[in-house]
């Protein structure tokens, strides 16, 4: 079940409840004062109450969604190294997570203290990182002017993928 189908179902149910509530209002309007039809019309009119909950949930969901998506590296952009790093991957508890970085480009974040910087690592096909073995990689920052002010040679960092810490390392001087 996708979120869009859930939303479509919610909209369909809201419309159905509103239609039944309107029918209940019409039945109540035209039914004689003390009658079962008037009571049924009153019960049908109560069906608009769950719609209020749906509207409130929709408003909360809309308030929580970000106004714009965070920037990332555009597909097909040329890799231009901003720095070199020495990275040591952490050992994973499960074997399938023991090699989280494969050859090619790897998007992640380098974190120094409470500052995080969006990065793209260039992983050569012959040099995929192995857990607990240091490796040297080139890194490109999304905003190099901000990142390089904090990531000077020798600074220690943690590499994150989403919310998972994959490894630690330090910044190396650029080869000249």
The strand count comes to 6
How far apart the termini lie comes to 54 Å
Q: What's the main sheet like? A: 6 strands, antiparallel, barrel
Question: What structural category arises from helix and sheet content?
Answer: alpha+beta
* CA-based shape: rod-shaped
Tell me the strand percentage band: 25-35%
Number of helices: 4
Please estimate the helix content.
Answer: 25-40%
**Low-pLDDT stretches:** none
Radius of gyration: 29 Å
Strand order of the largest sheet: 1-4-3-2-5-6
Compressed to H and E, one letter per element, the order equals: HHHEEEEHEE
Question: Kindly state the mean pLDDT as a whole number?
Answer: 84
Condensed summary:
The protein has four helices and six strands; from the N terminus they run αααββββαββ. The chain is α+β, with helices and mostly antiparallel strands and 176 residues long.
Keywords:
4 helices; six-stranded antiparallel barrel
Provide an overview of this structure.
With 176 residues, the chain is of the alpha+beta class. The chain is 35% helix and 27% strand. It is built from four helices and six strands, in the order αααββββαββ. The chain has a six-stranded antiparallel β-barrel with strand order 1-4-3-2-5-6. β2 and β3 form a beta hairpin. α1 runs antiparallel to α2. The protein is rod-shaped. The protein starts with a helix and ends with a strand. The model has no long low-confidence stretch (mean pLDDT 84).
């Amino acid at each position: 079940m996708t979120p869009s189908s859930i939303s479509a179902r919610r909209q369909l149910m809201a419309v159905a409840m509103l239609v039944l509530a309107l029918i209940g209002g019409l039945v109540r309007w035209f039914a004689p004062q003390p009658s079962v039809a008037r009571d049924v019309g009153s019960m049908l009119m109560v069906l608009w109450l769950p719609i209020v909950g749906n509207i409130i949930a929709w408003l909360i969901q809309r308030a929580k969604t970000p106004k714009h998506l965070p920037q990332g590296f555009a597909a097909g952009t040329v890799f231009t190294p901003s720095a070199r790093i020495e990275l040591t991957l952490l050992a994973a508890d499960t074997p399938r997570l023991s090699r989280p970085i494969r050859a090619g480009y790897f998007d992640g974040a380098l974190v120094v203290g409470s500052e995080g910087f969006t990065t793209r690592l260039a992983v050569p096909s012959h040099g995929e990182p192995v857990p607990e073995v240091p490796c040297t990689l080139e890194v490109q920052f999304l905003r190099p002017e901000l990142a390089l002010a904090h990531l000077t040679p020798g600074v220690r960092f943690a590499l994150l993928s989403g919310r998972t810490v994959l490894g630690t390392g330090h910044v190396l001087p650029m080869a000249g």
